[in-house]
Protein: Ribokinase
Organism: Anaerotruncus colihominis DSM 17241
Amino acid sequence: MNRKPKILVVGSFVMDLIVSTEKFPGSGETVLGKSFRTAPGGKGANQAVQAARLGADVTMVGKVGGDSFGRELIASAQAAGIHTQHILQDPDNPSAIGNILLEVAEGQKSKNRIIVVSGANMAITPDDVAFVRDIVSEFDMVMLQLEIPMQINELVAQYAFEKGVPVMLNSAPSAPLSAALLSHLTYISPNEHEAADLTGIPIRKEGKSVNRDDLDAVIASLRGKGVQNVIITLGSAGAVVAGDSGIDFSPCVDVVEVKDPTAAGDSFVGAFCTAVCAGLNQRQALDFANYTATITVSQMGAQPSLPHLADVIELMQREQFDGFDLGLLDILK
């Protein structure tokens, strides 16, 4: 490949309303918070912004409300260099919001609880995405998530599959998936809890050690449903990718203070897809994605925390990473 990778993201926009507190309130309890702020988010938009900041040529398809949050969400995508001509504004539904509660206790890793009100995200119709069938062959990959109607994901995955374009589904938030959708996926990327929901097989962990039998069983189950490659993020135990060429592990890059884990998974997925489309193999892409997500959790907010390519390369150099020649990333510069 002698050009930047082209990625099509079909997914969600969410304005995050973020409250930090030293202690999550219990039922019926009121606590005083430490801070409040807003930040553009949504799994689809986050992954699109991350891919764009890492050097991919990204086009986003989605829907926001005809309100101030919608205008801010589109502006954030444009600021990242994303092509936004296919983002619709819906006068009948509000932009989605995410109520994010962060527990920030001294000496402990931050924890989060999130409630999403879907708004315009769930108003996307088949007619809104029908044009994708005609343009999908222009792209190196299609990225999907589960914050828009399942019917839309199934249609777009089918359009891409018919044209031989790889499809990544970040299967979050957790939901049942049809056999047809699974058979159209090149990659699926659940976390350990979502993987258990999809297969009925919990993955036992102890610290950074993962039960290999559980992991093998989950991978075999998902690949048996027709998915070509399975990526599972395992928190402090790192991440794994499995396909026809075998299984590759990448350890957690535990070199920063975790301040906000909100967009870590989106950062990981956006980085992995960008790296694969740029020509890196799956193990190299896994390492690159782990370093990218590490920077994300060290900063506050969803999209504000997503790093640029230079930030990731700087961290990899600082940690003396030698898993692959960083010159492979030059195509993204």
Notes: Residues 282-297 form the longest helix (16 residues). The chain has a mean pLDDT of 94. The longest strand covers residues 57-65.
